[in-house]
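Repro:
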Amino acid sequence: MSGLGKSVQVVNPYNQEIIGEVQTVEWCIIDEMLNTASNLHRNRANWLPAHKRIDILKRTAEIMQDREQELAYLIANEGGKPLKDARVEVTRAIGGIELCIHEISQLAGKEIPMDLTEAGSGRTAFTQREPIGPVFAASAFNHPLNLIVHQVAPAVAAGCPVIVKPASDTPLSCKAFVDILTEAGLPDGWCHFTLCDNATAEKLVSDPRLGFFSFIGSARVGWMLRSKLAPGTRCALEHGGVAPVIVDETADITDMIPLLAKGGFYHSGQVCVSVQRVFVPNSMMDKIAAELGTVADTLVVGNATDQETDCGPLIRPREVDRVEEWVNEALEEGAKLICGGKKLSDTTYAPTVLLNPSQNSKVSAQEVFGPVVCVYGYSDINDAIATANSLPFAFQASVFTKNLDTAMKASRELDATAVMVNDHTAFRTDWMPFAGRRQSGYNTGGIGYTMHDMTQDKMTVIKT
């Protein structure tokens, strides 16, 4: 059939068994999708009223609730996220839909005072929020349902037609969500699922019919695609970080260690705000590294679909090889191995704690995106903060302390969009702003913030 590309086989990343297949499409089909989306937006008679969008999203949440276990298994099976965590992801995704419903009522304008000068007097003015236009959402593999919800559901809630391209490793959860939207009553043309090659995606991004581009993935690809946007197309980019943690002498180590382990080894470290660099006073360095290593050694590594698994596979075997190379490099450059430090199979890597790797090692200077946490000693907290801020990446950070002055100092001085106090760097709720600075991203995520970005102000001025 004309317009169809190659088929992509979807595999369980642990055992590499084929679990599904998705057909890619070529530009001629995507051009039709975008033309449909553009026509829906340009003809205001086609716009979905708020009550219709609310009804569709309510039904979507109900269907997802009924299929919660099925969706969780799909996340684990295609994405390698442990089943216990995949269930949490489905719960969050349903909550995200409900949050979209709430935020529809917040898409409100305001009155603009006009009689502040004589020139404006005798006029009444107000604003309204309108959908920005067709949205193209390109997503990452690590949260294959919830990321899609964060990109697609706000577009639906805001009244924007949307074309969604999931990661080629994890398209099945995305396809399931788009099918649920259709089942819930979303009319034809308002949400298109597509899988295409990079050249076709680049062509879509540069099309002037596009109103908004939402991208979650690698910085290299995201910043390149942003440079291709047509004039007037807005965007949001979410990339990775190399998340720092500052610990002072007053920190409650008993409470802290499980949090650091969760933040560092959740989804085998394949999280953009995963704990990666932990700075601790020299006097506490060995103790904290050892205790973190003890917890890491207890984590069960295996197939994500098994109930007992704590850490699943990395998404591709080549990522395991890369993490192995980075850890070996750090050891050769002077790091001390506390635990892990080895491949367990072609698809899994042992949860690893490194002590004092060189700041020039890749594990210190780049996002590992694997199950590796580095602990560094410091004698001066100012130096620790300066080192934490020394990279071109800035996303979320944290500080562990019982000292209010230290907490506020870290909040002020850490280069981050969010600083967690006595919690790990990967903490998030779906209604809070979520964004990277510098090379870590552009614009702000979070359901309400995304819906605001997918709409724009229209002002009416009435001369009386």
